[in-house]
Amino acid sequence: MSKVLEVNNLRVDIPTEQGTVHAVKGISFSLNQGETLCLVGESGSGKSMTALSIVGLQTPRARVTAERLELLGKPLNSLSQRQLNQLRGKDVAIIFQDPMTALNPTLTIERQMTEGVMRHEGVRRQDARTRAIDLLNKVGIPQATERLYQYPHQFSGGQRQRIMIAMALMGKPSLLIADEPTTALDVTIQAQILDLIRTLATELDFALLMITHDFGVVAAMADRVSVMYGGKIVESGPACEVLKSPQHPYTQGLIACIPVPGRTTPGSRLPVIDHEKLAVKELS
Ligand SMILES: Nc1ncnc2c1ncn2[C@@H]1O[C@H](COP(=O)(O)OP(=O)(O)OP(=O)(O)O)[C@@H](O)[C@H]1O
Ligand SMILES: [Mg+2]
Fold first, then answer.
1. Which of the residues 39, 113, 168, 176 has an alpha carbon 20 to 30 A from that of 210?
2. Closest ligand to 16 CA?
3. pTM for this prediction
4. Residue nearest to atom 17 of ligand 1 (CA)
């Protein structure tokens, strides 16, 4: 299996007026073709900063350093913004939580889906349209041929997220990064979208970096999982092993917080993670 992404000792520091935020404190992981890695952790643990700095979309004042940050063997941290722009959408694509912020409300889906591959890869309009229709069909948008000419507001939230996924796959990326792609959707739609991403990852054989705070998502789709806490990876391993016997107290806490039908007594209190104890553990 070929290596798609190699991240070694990645750090992200953000200078602010109150001092420097060490958002990511030297994390390492890699991802092979066709493999799904879930980066899981609570809010503020550094998941999005990790994802954004891989594709060069971090906030401009952030300082990103890494011993190695390679996509398909190409060192990402030595590329210019222009080279990174070319890479995005082609070798790597990213989808976010809220499709409405990523879709342009004033442009048709056709314009938004075809523009990138026409500009970056020189694909002819007719071929780009055919690819777009094919992908919209794949992600389950009915009557794709006609709907291609509609605007984002003419679609439901779930459909917009499906369109985002189709758009991300237009350049046939080797790596798809999905940053909490379903948290803005209701639960039944969440399950459908996760199922869709998993099916597409198998069929199109791309590497998937799935970012989530939900161990349910890990159980549903991860081959491997890395648990982030306070900007560090505190535990990594095959998803089934980490789920079955988590080693780090934070992972144990996260998993214990999931209500399990038949095991959790209705009305009982779920465990709460004791951050003070974990912080002490980190210091010692
Ligand atoms: N633009 C910014 N300026 C300063 N600090 C920031 C900025 N963006 C993020 N941070 C800080 O970096 C840390 C990591 O944030 P990040 O967005 O990666 O968390 P996350 O794990 O994605 O959380 P969530 O689950 O809420 O999306 C947090 O402490 C956050 O406050
Ligand atoms: Mg985030």
1. 113
2. 1
3. 0.91
4. 48
